[in-house]
């Protein structure tokens, strides 16, 4: 077995990627402190073809060397926007037809393995601050809370890891529906 080279991978150019149809998913970062986490979310959004990343509140925004350190150029391929207020953005997305889910441990949350995205429905997933999670007012406004089942002694995952888990799960379920 031979490791594939960059040429073997035959990746799209940034322009080709921008013009490709994306999965019906946007990511909303609610006051994420770590610029490395922000960069990792960009890279995940690129890998799994999310429509857009919203950077809310104190969340850092490109260009910044610490974001680029983990994004590895994904800030150029993934559409993004900085929005000062997460709650106002959630309301706007809902008005545009998005179902908004806060990725959070909350009363009556839906376990990720039980979540089934509906065909043709647009989704926005809110991921929160590394210490405080998603703001309560944002959870209150959300259409649902989505929880990643965990079986160890820790109570949460790093936001970049959580993003990878939920976006891959979303994409794999969307792809399964297309078969």
Automatic annotation (TrEMBL):
Domain of life of the source: Bacteria
The tRNA/rRNA methyltransferase SpoU type domain, residue ranges: 25-167
GO terms classed as biological process: methylation
UniProt-listed Pfam families: SpoU_methylase (PF00588)
InterPro entries associated with the record: Alpha/beta_knot_MTases, rRNA_MeTrfase_TrmH, SpoU_MeTrfase, tRNA_m1G_MTases_N
GO MF term list: methyltransferase activity
Keyword annotations: Methyltransferase, Transferase
Name listed for the protein in its UniProt record: RNA methyltransferase
Organism: Pontibacter rugosus
């Amino acid at each position: 077995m031979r490791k594939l080279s960059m040429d073997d991978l035959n990746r799209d150019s940034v322009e080709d990627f921008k013009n490709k149809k994306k999965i019906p998913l946007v990511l909303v970062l609610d006051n994420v402190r770590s610029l490395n986490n922000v960069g990792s979310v960009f890279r995940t959004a690129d890998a799994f073809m999310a429509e857009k990343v919203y950077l809310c509140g104190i969340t850092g925004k490109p260009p910044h060397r610490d974001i680029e350190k983990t994004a590895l150029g994904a800030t150029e391929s993934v559409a993004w926007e900085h929005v000062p207020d997460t709650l106002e953005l959630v309301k706007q997305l809902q008005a545009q037809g998005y179902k908004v889910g806060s990725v959070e441990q909350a009363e009556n949350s839906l376990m990720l393995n039980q979540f089934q995205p509906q065909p043709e429905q647009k989704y926005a997933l809110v991921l929160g601050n590394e210490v405080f999670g998603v703001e309560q007012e944002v959870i209150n406004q959300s259409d649902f809370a989505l929880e990643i089942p965990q079986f160890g002694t820790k109570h949460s995952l790093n936001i970049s890891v959580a993003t990878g888990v939920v976006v891959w799960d979303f994409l794999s379920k969307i792809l399964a529906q297309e078969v």
